[in-house]
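*** Fold description ***
***
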Amino acid sequence: MFINQQIEINNLPEISSVELKPISKNYFKIIILNKAVLYTIVIGLLITGKFKIQEEGFQDNFIYIIVLVIIGCLLNFLLSLLAFKKRKYAIRDKDVIYSKGLLVNSITTVPISRIQHIEESRSWLARKLSLATLKIFTAGESGSDLKIDGLPLEEARKINDFLSTRVNESI
């Protein structure tokens, strides 16, 4: 016989009571480097345009354009810093939780029972900083369902081992 009991909302556990752990501060170095490369390319293209584009409107307004771009870069950097502080995760007995986002905060919870595959990856800079990214795949075709960047390498390996063991136990 099928029974589908209603659950009282007040009795549900609150995710806000979970203590989320921030990712490694070293990961911010990677973000800074990526931003610096992007900003250098954009400003470099603008300066190149100053010498290549002879259109009066561009030449007359070049100083305003470059100031706006620099202000935009600074605001983007500030938002990245604030958003970085919101990247947190927790590994629990039955699930993995990842929270990120400044303007739009998203919290992703992946039940361990749904995990099919875990991948650890490291870029060249992440290797230099002893960091790793864990990608957690669940059933379905959407690719990795959860990606946690900026984990200390040893911690990422411990999490990978723990999750792999738990996934294999449930098979």
User: Anything to note?
Assistant: The mean pLDDT is 91.
